[in-house]
């Protein structure tokens, strides 16, 4: 039972992390699609370096 709760907690944390990263990229004008342009890569690099 404890393992099931741990699994659900991990899934929930991953979902929250994914949503926050998506929202941050969208707010910077990036797209959620996998097709990346050089300018989009630079914005992602600056975003991760800023953290």
Polypeptide structure, described:
- The protein is mainly α.
- The chain has a domain at 1-27.
- The protein has helices at 2-27, 38-50.
- The chain is rod-shaped and about 40 Å long.
- The relative contact order is 0.10.
- Keywords: Signal.
- This is (rape) hypothetical protein.
- It comes from Brassica napus (Rape).
- How many extended strands? 0
Low-pLDDT runs of 5+ residues are none
Counted by DSSP, the helix tally is 2
Radius of gyration based on Cα positions: 15 Å
Structural class: mainly alpha
Separation, N- and C-terminal Cα atoms: 36 Å
Question: Strand share of the residues?
Answer: under 5%
Order of helices and strands: HH
What about the largest sheet?
none
Helix content: over 70%
Dominant shape: rod-shaped
Mean pLDDT across all residues, rounded? 74
Question: What are the SSEs and their pairings?
Answer:
Elements (H helix, E strand, L loop, with lengths): L1 H26 L10 H13 L1
Provide a brief overview of the structure.
The protein is mostly helical.
Which key phrases capture this entry?
51 residues; mainly alpha
